[in-house]
Write a structure and sequence with these properties.
mainly beta; Immunoglobulin-like; C8orf32 fold; 3 domains; eight-stranded mixed sheet; 8 helices; 39 strands; globular
């Protein structure tokens, strides 16, 4: 083969002949579009799925290579059929197809068809999707969504759709998801990959493959070419092409045919304290690692973190924006003069930006325009706000740099897999004297300096530093915790009624949650809703403190009263901790396959001082207890003591880590069960005879 074919920038297709990529191992397709099975309209075949809103009957896709417009192309074809069981499942009739565009090249969808089938008077009625039922949505500069909706969907409908995506972007090999929130009867993906292309296959999830096959064949391409296949360099994000000659060359590469399938895949179940289902559902992802043309050495086209660092630092909508500050010199000079201490100055700059610009609710790693425009408009996306923060910190004489990250809902970032698409958010890193490093975000009006929103607590982020090799990974694990503290003084009467005073403090992320709740509801509604969670309670007086002092705990002092029975009782049963702690175990399932991610550690304390009614004394009291998690992961302690006329109870629960592995789940579940069981133990008071 001529050396000129070893780079991709000068291929023009003349003819494609000979063997094409055949279905893997000669298998027939598992679904034929337009021919639903009558059994799919019989309700008895879905008794086992009665809890589901819909069922994927078959999801079949395949990707192969073709040549056209002078280069290789990826062709992805899909056929999907779904049974709708409930009204809540109607959303499955709206489909979103992601498409990528860069420069003059764009992914295109073709051969889009869809039908809805309903059983009417014993006959299957077929309704075609109208051409105007589709539209395009732009998500980012390069990312679009083609959305379409199947017609006349009702309970019992069967819907199906098919489409083809033609892509010039060889890096964007179609991934495949086997598992969804609804059950999947059969999901199959096939891929035919010529020997020139080296794709990493990255499987995740906990469901087994029912089929995993591969074989090799031969395919033939004939090109009219001149010049050479020139890789456009960069991070391997795509390869361009251009024609320079009329000669013809035929290539016959080996092609590897892959076939993967899963059957009877259960619907994914969300669990308390998790990031996103995207991190755990069964799927396979593909990453282009390199190319090897005949007669030439292997050439890596995978990105590197160094390349991504440089691209972001020089990007017009990220690093370049940080060089265009300076328009707040007067404001920052005043802050610098007022706060000679660097930490106090950084907090003051953070407060200025936080109050000057409101986050518009959109999270992204790149800005939408100039920082001055953001400041003048007083609104922007998360990058607009936080890049303005970094620029302002620098102009105030502080060392500040961007940290790019993936939010919890965006999905897990893999440090061993350099991908620009891993990032969807940027925050500020501030270096202070004494080797102190802080992360800051100005998108939330209630977020203090040095604290990230919970959506950003996702493992690690990439600190972008000028200079080769200076960028590095930083931990996003917070120093702040969820802190809840209750100090309660209450007096019991002989009817079991009580009145008391409560001093409540919420610190760290608990303070953030409570402040947000307070702003949303207002003080009166906040107190009314709190009283409703305690049967019979009235809260006649209350006072909030430190509402605006964001770095301090939010304080609430209030008095409450709860009536007892109509007449005095010789025996009183007290179960008071339930009013000030968790009422049920959040971990209801016996097993869990993925980690428990609280985002931040927990510290919950209740101090209860009870004044007994005259003439009563404790007949039964719970015993002290201590429960520990393995590896010093947490501890629960319970202490109780009685003296004449009073009882004191102290309960404290500490979870020292933000994340616990799936292997630790059973211990964590038992930990909560034993804590709640201890809280449920009653104190029995007996009237002295």
């Amino acid at each position: 083969m001529p050396k000129t074919l070893l780079h991709r920038s000068a291929l023009t297709l003349l003819l494609l002949t000979g063997a094409s990529q055949l279905p893997a191992l000669g298998q027939a397709d598992p679904i034929k579009f337009g021919k639903p099975d009558l059994a799919d309209f019989d309700a008895k075949n879905f008794v086992a799925d009665s809890a589901a809103e819909a069922v994927v009957l078959c999801d079949f896709g395949r990707t192969r290579f073709e040549t056209g417009s002078g280069d290789f192309k990826l062709i992805f074809e899909r056929v999907t059929r779904i049974k709708i069981l409930k009204k809540s499942g109607y959303d499955w009739a709206t489909v979103k197809v992601p498409l990528y565009k860069k420069g003059a090249n764009e992914e295109k969808i073709s051969a889009l068809r869809g039908f809805t089938y309903n059983m009417v008077n014993g006959q299957v009625v077929k309704e075609k999707m109208a051409s105007d039922a589709t539209f395009m949505e732009q998500q980012t500069t390069n990312n679009f969504i083609r959305k379409f909706t199947l017609p006349n969907v009702r309970e019992g409908s069967v819907i199906e759709y098919t489409y083809t995506v033609n892509s010039d972007f060889l890096f964007n090999f179609q991934d495949w998801q086997f598992q969804y929130y609804i059950p999947v009867r059969w999901s199959e993906y096939r891929a035919a990959i010529p020997e020139y292309f080296d794709y990493k296959q990255l499987f995740q999830g906990y469901e087994p493959l029912a089929v995993q096959e591969r074989n090799e064949g031969i395919t033939q391409f004939t090109f009219s070419q001149g010049g050479s296949f020139n890789n456009d360099g960069g991070s391997g994000m795509r390869a361009g092409s251009g024609r320079t000659g009329p000669s013809s060359t035929t290539v016959t590469p080996r092609v590897t045919n892959y076939r993967w399938a899963m059957k009877q895949v259960p619907g994914f179940r969300d669990e308390p304290f998790m990031t996103t289902s995207k991190d755990y559902v069964a799927r396979v992802n593909f990453e282009l690692a390199g190319v090897q043309w005949p007669g030439q050495a292997y050439e890596s086209v995978a990105g590197s973190w160094q390349k991504i660092d440089d691209e972001l630092l020089n990007h017009e909508s990220l690093g370049s924006q940080l060089k265009r500050g300076g328009f707040l010199k007067a404001e920052l000079a005043a802050i610098t003069a007022q706060h000679p201490d660097p930490a106090a100055r950084a907090a003051a700059v953070h407060a200025m930006v936080r109050k000057a610009v409101k986050h518009n609710g959109t999270d992204w790693v790149l800005s939408t325009g100039s920082l001055k425009h953001t400041y003048d408009q007083h609104t922007g996306n998360s990058a607009d706000v936080n890049l303005l923060l970094i620029a302002a910190l620098r102009d105030a004489g502080l060392e500040a740099n961007p940290v790019v990250l993936s939010t919890r809902s965006h999905g897990r970032l893999t440090e061993t897999l350099p991908l620009m698409s891993s990032f969807n958010y940027v925050v500020a890193h501030v270096a202070l004297p004494g080797n102190q490093e802080l992360l800051a975000d100005a998108t939330d009006a209630l977020l203090p300096f040095g604290m990230l929103p919970t959506r950003c607590l996702s493992g690690t982020g990439r600190l972008l530093m000028p200079g080769a090799g200076k960028s590095r990974w930083v931990s996003l694990t917070p120093t702040q915790r969820y802190v809840n503290y209750h100090q309660v003084h209450l007096t019991m009467d002989d009817r079991g009624g009580m009145k008391g005073k409560v001093h409540q403090e919420n610190g760290g992320y608990a303070a953030l949650d409570q402040r947000e709740n307070l702003v949303k509801k207002g003080e009166k509604k906040f107190i009314e809703d709190m009283a409703k969670t305690h049967e019979g309670w009235s809260i006649p007086t209350y006072a909030f403190k430190e509402r605006e002092t964001l770095h301090k705990p939010l304080i609430l002092d209030y008095e409450f009263a709860a009536p007892g029975a109509d007449a005095p009782a010789p025996t009183l049963y007290l179960n008071l901790l339930r009013h000030f702690s968790a009422k049920r175990n959040p971990f209801v399932h016996e097993e869990r396959r993925f980690p428990v991610d609280f985002a931040a550690p927990f510290d919950e304390t209740v101090q209860l001082n009870i004044s007994l009614p005259a003439g009563y004394e404790p007949e039964e009291m719970p015993k002290p207890a201590a429960v520990k998690l393995p590896e010093d992961g947490g501890v629960f302690t319970y202490q109780v003591a009685a003296s004449p006329g009073t009882i004191q109870i102290m309960s404290r629960m500490t979870l020292r880590r933000a994340v616990y592995s799936a292997e630790e789940y059973s211990y964590l579940r038992e930990f909560y069960s034993r804590m709640l069981a201890k809280h449920a133990e009653q104190i029995v008071l007996k009237k002295k005879s």
